[in-house]
Amino acid sequence: MSSVLYQKYRSNNFDEIKGQDHVIKLLKNAVKTNQIAQAYLFVGSRGTGKTSTARILAKAVNCQNLKKDGNPCGECEYCRSIAEGRFLDLIEIDAASNRGIDQIRQLKEKIEFSPSQGKYKVYIIDEVHMLTTEAFNALLKTLEEPPAHVIFILATTDAHKLPPTILSRCQRYDFRLGTDIEIKGLIKEIVKKEEIIIEEEALDVIVNNAKGSYRDALSILDVIYTGQEEKKKEITLEETRKILGLPDFDNVVLLLKNLLEGNGSKSLVVIEELEEKGVNLQQFTGYVLDILRRILTGKIKGKLEKDFDFAKDVDIKVLHKLINLFLEVENKIRYANNQALVLEMIIPEMMKSGVGQDVEIVNRDVKKRIPKDGELEKQEKKSDEVKIEREDLTVKEIQDRWDEFVNAIKPFNGHLYAFLGGANVINFDKGTLFIEVPFQFHMERIIVPKSRNAISETFEKIYGTNCKISCSVNGNIKPKRKEDANFVLRNLPVIKKKKQEELEAKKVKERVVESIEAIFEGM
After folding, report:
1. In this predicted model, what pLDDT tens digit does every residue of 374-393 receive, in sequence order?
2. Less packed terminus of the chain by CB within 10 Å, N or C?
3. How far is CA 157 from the centre of its chain?
4. Rounded CA gap, 57 and 286, in Å?
5. What structural domains does the chain harbor?
6. Residue 306 has what pLDDT?
7. Is residue 256 within a helix (H) or strand (E), and if so which, with residue range?
8. pTM of this prediction?
9. ∠ CA 446-449-450, rounded to 5°
10. What average pLDDT score do residues 42-52 get?
11. How confident is the model at residue 109 (pLDDT cuts 50, 70, 90)?
12. In the predicted model, what is the mean pLDDT of the chain?
C-alpha cells in the first residue's frame, strides 16, 4: 500500500474527479468546442479537487489525441509529461510562499515566450488570495491583456479575499465539499483496491473526521493503516480511535447527559477526569459538537439514534442552547491557556437549582471517578457514614470565627483563601453552609470538587463538623464591603509587591481628589 494514498489515487481525467459534476461538465464542453478562457478561478475548501482539476485541464488543452468527450487521452507524450511533473509549459506557483511583487514580475517576463512543448502555457497559482496588494496589481495587468498562448488557473479557499478587479477577469467555478455518502464511497473504493477490510464503525469515524474533504479522507486512512503496530489488512474501530487520538464516546455521552440534567457537580467530575487523562479538550469539543448535531438532526427527523435515548425527552430549545454554548467554547478554547476552565464555563449555564449542587464531599483519600456502575454513588454513601454533625452550631459562631476559618484554608489554596475572604455567611442549616460572593468567577471556583473538599475538611477542624457548601452570587454585596476587592487582590499569590505599591498610590491619589472636592463644595 502506498504511503501517500491521495497521490497514488489522484484523478487522471475529468471523469475521475469526485463530487464536482457541475464543474466537470462545463470544462469538458469548453475543451470540446475549443472555447478556452484565458483565466479560471477555482474556489472551494481544501481537498475538493481544485488542483487535480487544474492539472487535468492543462492536459486537455495540450493533449495530442483529445477524446471526443473532452477528456485527455492520458497516453500521449504531453499527457504523460504532465502526469510525471516534467512538462515545461505547466508552471505551478504556491502563492503562500511566493506572494510578493518580484515573483509576479518574473512571471510576467516569462509569459511572453511561446510554449516550449505544447499549445498553451498553463500557470496554476494555488492559494492566490495570499498575494500582496502590489502583487495583485501586477497580476491584474497581466490578466487584462494576456498572450493568446497563456492560460491562468487561480485556486483559492478564500475567494472573498480577492480584489473585485481580479474576480471580474476570471471564469469562476465553485468546488463543493463531499457528502458523507460520497466520502464513504471513495474510501470503500480505495480499500477494495488495496484489499483491506475495514469495520463499518471505523469507516464512519474516518468520514466524520474528513469533514467533506476527499484528500483528508485518504490521508486519515493512510495514517491509520501506517500507524498499525502489526501490519494487517484490517482496520478496526478501536485502533482507528486510538491512532487518531479521538475522545471516548462514552465520556461525551456522559457529559451531555449530566449537562442536560442540569447536574453541575457530575459534569465537573467528567471534565476533571478528561483533564487528568490529558485528553485534547479542543478535539473533545469538536467531537461533542458532532454528537450534538446527530442528536439535533435525529430529533428533527423523529429518528433519534439508540445511543442518544437520554435526549429523547429534552426540549429542542434546550438542545439549541447547549449547541450554542459549545460553539462558543470551540471559538475560545483554541486560544485559551486554561482550556478546562473554558469548558467548565458551560456548567453554570446548564445547572438546575438543587440538582447536584450539594453532593456530599468525598474523603480526600478516596479518588473521585466518573460515575460508572454506581461507583460515585457508593463513594457518596461512604461519605455519609463518616459525616459529623453539630446541631448547636449557629451562624453567629461561624461569622465570629470566619477569619480563623479563612486563614486555615490558605495552605490548601491561596486563591480559595482570597475568594472566601470576600464572602458573606448567610445561613447554616442541616449541615449546609450558605454563602454569597460578589462575583460569578468566585462562585465557579468555590463549587469545584477540590475547593469543596478543602472547605469541608477545614470547616470540621475549626467548627467541629462537616459541611456542604451552597454558594450564590450577589452583586449588591460589593458596595457594602469595598475592601473585598482589595482583599482578593492583596492575597492572590500572583500579585507582587509592585502591584501592591501601585494600589496604595492609587488610594492616596483618590484621597487627595476627595479633599479637593470637599474644599470646592464648601465654597
Report:
1. 444 444 444 344 455 666 78
2. C
3. 19
4. 37
5. 5-175 (3.40.50.300), 180-244 (1.10.8.60), 249-350 (1.20.272.10), 386-491 (3.30.300.180)
6. 85
7. helix 249-261
8. 0.60
9. 80
10. 93
11. confident
12. 82
Give the DSSP H/E element, type plus range, for residue 472.
Answer: strand 468-473
Distance, in Å, from the CA atom of 419 to the CA atom of 410, rounded to the nearest integer, reads 11
Q: In the numeric block, which cell numbers belong to residue 235?
A: 482496520
**Do residues 459 and 465 touch, judged by C-beta distance below 8 A?**
yes
Q: Which of 160, 161, 85, 158 is nearest to 124 (CA)?
A: 85
| 439's grid cell | 462575583
Helical spans, DSSP H, in 262-338? 264-276, 281-301, 316-333
| Cα(323)–Cα(260) distance, integer angstroms | 11
CB distance 39 to 146 below 8 Å: yes
- 8 A C-beta contact, residue 325 and residue 255: no
Task: Count CB neighbours of 126 within 10 A.
Answer: 20
For residue 379, what are the contacts with CB-CB under 8 A and spacing of at least 6? 362, 366, 368
Containing 425, the helix (H) or strand (E) segment is strand 424-429
In degrees and rounded to multiples of 5, residue 450 shows phi and psi of -65, -40
Of 364, 346, 348, the residue nearest 356 (C-alpha)? 348
248 by DSSP, 3-state: which? coil
Burial class of 433 by CB neighbour count within 10 A (0 to 12, 13 to 18, 19+): buried
pLDDT digits (tens, 9 = 90+) for 304-355: 888 888 888 899 999 999 999 999 999 999 888 888 999 999 999 898 765 5
DSSP 359-394: PPPPPTTSPP----TTHHHHHHHHHHHT----TT--
What pLDDT, on the 0 to 100 scale, is given for residue 371?
A: 45
pLDDT over 50 (residue 226): yes
Cβ–Cβ under 8 Å, residues 368 and 361: no
Long-range contacts of 479-485 (CB under 8 A, 24+ apart): 481/422, 481/424, 481/438, 484/421, 484/422, 484/438, 485/422, 485/438
Task: State mean pLDDT over 187-200.
Answer: 90
Mean pLDDT, rounded, for 468-477: 80
The pLDDT of residue 498 is 53
287 vs 368, which has greater pLDDT? 287
Q: How far apart are CA 376 and CA 267, in angstroms?
A: 13
Residue 445 and residue 345 in contact, taking contact as beta carbons nearer than 8 Å: no
Give the SS3 label for residue 93. Answer: strand
DSSP code of residue 121: E
**Tell me: the pLDDT tens digits for 420-472?**
888 889 888 888 888 988 877 778 778 887 788 888 888 888 888 888 888 88
CA distance 253 to 257: 6
Rounded to whole angstroms, the Cα distance separating 167 from 205 reads 38
Q: Which of 117-126, 451-460, 485-494 has the highest mean pLDDT?
A: 117-126
Spatial distance between the Cα atoms of 368 and 386, rounded to a whole number of angstroms: 16
Identify whether the C-beta of residue 398 lies closer than 8 Å to the C-beta of residue 433: yes
